[in-house]
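Ticket #4471: structure output looks truncated?

Reporter: J.K.
Steps to reproduce: submitted the chain below (272 residues) through the standard prediction queue, then opened the result file.
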Amino acid sequence: MNAVDITGLKYNYADGTEALNDINLKIERNKKTAILGSNGSGKTTLIYHLNGIFLPQQGQVTVMGFPLLKKNISKIRQQVGLLFDNPDNQLFSTTVFNDIAFGPRNLKLGEEEVLSRTFKAIQMVNIEGLKDKPPYNLSLGQKKKVAIAGLLAMEPEMLVCDEPFSGLDPYSTCQMVDILNDLSIKGATLILSTHDVNLAYTWADQVIIMKEGEILAAGEVELLTDRELMIQGYLEVPMLADIFEGTGFSPRSPEEAAGIIRSCMPVGKNKN
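Returned output as attached by the reporter:
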């Protein structure tokens, strides 16, 4: 069973703007999926259909085996965590600890289980030193970690992230990637939207490329090396793919690229 099945999905905003037009899509479980596209391509609108913020106006959406209907939203949200682009939209308690504990408490779990899940989530994202601080005093990167911890405390099977790296410095981005990779290793299904083609090329198992509310292509990461397709989607070919085009090599990370370069360099003579 797929994590997401979408057939004929259409969605228009109140002002008549067509946000999604006849979306047909399947997203596999236990995979890392990146949704790419320029501003206004429909990425966020699509993501908001994956945990019931938006309901289909036309078409059908099935998430983790449940049709996206009002009666199923509670069940879907227990299995699907959504990280907003702006973490301030989901942080509201007086302390980080209370923010993270809110979700489990809302599930009507016993207090012992709430505390266990909260401390576990705090450790997973390495924010033990922040647990007693008010969220509004934190940096953007710290807020995003707290927001993710709040979702992890719900123990979702699928995590959906809207531009999780936007506004982050390189160090915070690396930390966020490490958190997501750790979740993937543990079997979570991860879906994120991003403008960063380089990160998507390195990170994702599969990609979805959107333009003006439609899907241009969906499939393996190698789609990002299709120069004509990327131009059509107002995107750039990832830097590594661009550099190694025509060489017969296709490294997916800087480490792989460095290894290829070293292997191609002539062996120097030993100096006496």
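Triage note (M.O.): checked the attachment and the full token line is present. The domain at 4-235 is CATH 3.40.50.300 (Rossmann fold).
Status: closed, working as intended.
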